[in-house]
Design brief:
The protein contains nine helices and seven strands; from the N terminus they run αααββαββαααβββαα. The model has no long low-confidence stretch (mean pLDDT 86). With 241 residues, it is α+β, with helices and mostly antiparallel strands. A five-stranded antiparallel beta sheet has the order 4-3-7-6-5, sandwiched between helices. A two-stranded antiparallel ribbon has the order 1-2. The longest helix is centred in the first third of the chain and has 30 residues. Helix 1 packs across helix 2 and helix 2 crosses helix 3.
Length: 241
């Protein structure tokens, strides 16, 4: 099995295919052994052979495509846990997908618990930093469409009062700058969200803190932005999980 995996990895490195002799050399296998394993992998559908060259087969590509989302999710989960511990606060990852705010992952601890969803998170995007950060990344048409479906309404005494006020706030939000919300979704909680944009997908990483730690909010957002910047490449590829 281990030798077969080495052959699959070697073939995967050659988009234009590779002959058996080259694959045997790259994997350190004797040529007869390589031939035997390659024939078996072709028979099982993991490889295909064309004009003496070997390519990944349908079975291998299915394994790759099925495993990719899990691998991408693991990348995000590990990053969130690392940032959670470094900042000392719960960390959230959310995207705007098909017209909806989707909270994908949350990383917290018993000592620093995440905010409880007491009002529908998707319908109250106007009231939390995550939603405001995602909406600020949309164009005007998509933004107004969202607010038509989910009108602004009070969630706490600190929530933005109407759609017009929210739109003005979003228009003033500078590109790629953190968004802050103070007790707008949950009393006693402040939060900050850092925008991430990859292609047409809007995403954000956010932190929350108890209101008595509001003095930590801006430094936490700056630290999170720095940490996200270091991992932006792999993270951007993970937005589609």
């Amino acid at each position: 099995m281990q030798r077969a995996m080495r052959l699959l990895e070697s073939v995967a490195g050659h988009e234009s295919g590779a002959p058996a002799k080259q694959l045997a050399r790259e994997t350190g296998l004797a040529l007869p052994t390589a031939y035997h394993l390659l024939r078996t992998l072709v028979h099982e559908g993991y490889l295909r052979r064309d004009k003496g060259l070997f390519f990944l087969g349908d079975a291998a590509e299915r394994l790759t495509s099925n495993g990719a989302p899990q691998k991408r999710r693991s990348t995000v989960v590990a990053a969130l846990a690392r940032w959670r511990d470094a900042i000392g606060a719960p960390v959230y990852y959310a995207v705007y997908r098909e017209g909806e705010i989707e909270l994908v992952c949350v990383s917290d601890t018993p000592g620093n618990p995440a905010v409880q969803e007491w009002a529908d998170f998707r319908a109250t995007g106007h009231a939390h930093a995550i939603g405001q950060c995602l909406l600020s990344q949309l164009d005007e048409v998509a933004r107004r469409d969202h607010l038509d479906r989910y009108p602004v309404q009070p969630v706490t005494p600190y929530t933005v009062r109407d759609g017009h006020s929210l739109l003005r706030r979003l228009e003033r939000t500078r590109r790629m700058e953190p968004v802050f919300a103070r007790q707008e979704y949950a009393l006693g909680t402040v939060c900050a969200a850092v925008p991430i944009t990859a292609g047409a997908t809007a995403a954000t990483i956010a932190v929350s803190l108890p209101v008595h730690q509001v003095h930590r909010l801006h430094p936490a957002a700056q630290q999170l932005q720095t940490e996200v910047g270091r991992l932006l490449g792999p993270l951007a590829l993970s937005i589609s999980i």
